[in-house]
Amino acid sequence: MIETDVLIVGGGPAGLATAIALKRKANGKSLRVVVLDKGRSPGSHILSGAIIDPSGFKGLLTDEEVAKLPVEAHVVKESFRSILTPGFSLKIPWVPPMMSSKGYPVGSLTKVTQYLAQIAVKEGVEFYTGYAVTSLVEENGRIVGARTGEKGIGKDGQKKSNYLPSEEIRAKTTVLAEGGAGILTERLIAEKGLQGERAQTYALGIKELIEVPAGTQTAGEVMHTFGYPADFTTYGGGFVYHVSETQVMVGYAYALDYRRPEMDTFRLFRRFKATAAVAAHLKDGKTVAYGAKMIPEGGYYSAPKPYYPGCMIVGDGAGLLDSLRIKGVHIALQSGMAAAEAILAGDEASYVTRLHATSGWKEMKRVRNVRAPFSIAMPFGVMAAGLAWATFGKFPCCRLPGLGKNDAEELEELKPGRLAREAKNDVPSGPAMPDRLTDVFMSGTIHQEDQPCHLKIRDAAKCEECEKRFGSPCTRFCAAEVYRRDEIAGENGVTRGPLQIDFSNCLHCKTCAIKCPYGNVDWTFPQGGDGPRYTRM
Ligand code: SF4
Q1: What is the pTM (predicted TM-score) of this model?
Q2: What distance in angstroms lies between residue 455's CA and the mean position of ligand 1's atoms?
Q3: Residue 525 and residue 452: Cα distance in Å, rounded?
Q4: CB–CB of 216/247 below 8 Å?
Q5: Binding site membership of 248 for ligand 1 (Cβ less than 6 Å)
Q6: Are 236 and 297 in contact (CB under 8 A)?
Q7: Tens digits of per-residue pLDDT, 436-452?
Q8: What burial class does residue 95 get, using C-beta atoms within 10 Å of its C-beta: 0-12 exposed, 13-18 middle, 19+ buried?
Q9: Cα–ligand 1 centroid distance for 303 (angstroms)
Q10: SS3 assignment, position 17
Q11: What percent of the chain is predicted at pLDDT more than 90?
């Protein structure tokens, strides 16, 4: 058994901000701080846009450290496009002030996380990668630590020669910094009744890094879009960021409260890249990296109470996202600092009030009514966004309807002919338009094959029922082609075979745990160190 003052589960920006702030604000007080991350190396499970609002570093890093952030560009030119179609888009003549990010650093959050990890270690934080924390330890109504998962279990469930047992880590305070839809976080929220006024709603974000020839693009140019290829009742939007003269990040986020089961998130991403507005930025480019992640975008009303005795939730797990700008890194950093200050003050429960005093939380409150109307129809969302901004969030003053259900419950049954029609919308492959499995290869994801499958189907019969009613949406919403039904030609024509699960492709985005209409996927932890190996996302 290991004992520590603070255990931080997850080494992303929120967890590392907590760790750095604990060390820097301790005023000479000796404090053991342990960070455990399930990724193979610092930042390897971290992916984001990312244009980083630097307000999050205030009080955490020195100006000199902020100046040394590993990004090659700052936003110099920005544009916003709406009414996107394959060949047309309307450039909004000015960038709405609430969306502007001129001068902000733009680049890889993986690299920024690596940088924060170096600072944390220099401050004396113990940071261990390759350890999945699989359960919390509770005694007498208080979280007193956590347990790591076993390693070296074969797919037959037997211990292998490299077996490592689970380890208990006792901590005076445990901080959950697992990111969006973290397993321990979700469990704690559900079991302790911590959910906010509304269920959390998520979006799946898919992103590529594309190399383009030198001299063709401007570093620091960014473009945002909303809508297409999302339909009118689904919140969706994309971005193009020129993070250096030869590298472009392109991403598309699609809300998981979508209703039509034929929708295929990866195909939507390809269609987005194929629009004239986006393709102009990717000319003669070649995709070199890929990834996907979960974005908790419900905002203010969906944020859970982030505290339970002995335990705090920081960052994406606490639903900390400005759901208009789809920005959360700065709020994640601020939440880490608020958690650290509460721990150092010897008053953990004060974390909630400290968090609510941050500028990031106030920002979330201002746009608290923006996300829900988008799920009714896009024009309502646009109106709500304008009103929220113009009135500093004062109007509408109370909670607007919408987003009452969880994301899986929104799915409608599959209508005849829709699958074939949707499949026709796919676009041809090319160097900047790889197919799904080529992209998965570029994510670097690896899982040892000789281990139990971490995606457990609770009831196989429900998968067959799902195929009849919804056409197995997991075979389309998974950005890594983990779920598959092969087509089988027979006497009665082509039918779809049984559900196959290629767990080794998994990108740990957790979409299947959220969007399966039967809640039939139990997402458990694979062996620590497995999963994506992002290096520049
Ligand atoms: Fe995401 Fe689930 Fe697919 Fe893994 S299997 S990539 S968690 S949807």
Answers
A1: 0.95
A2: 9
A3: 10
A4: no
A5: no
A6: no
A7: 999 999 999 999 999 99
A8: middle
A9: 23
A10: helix
A11: 83
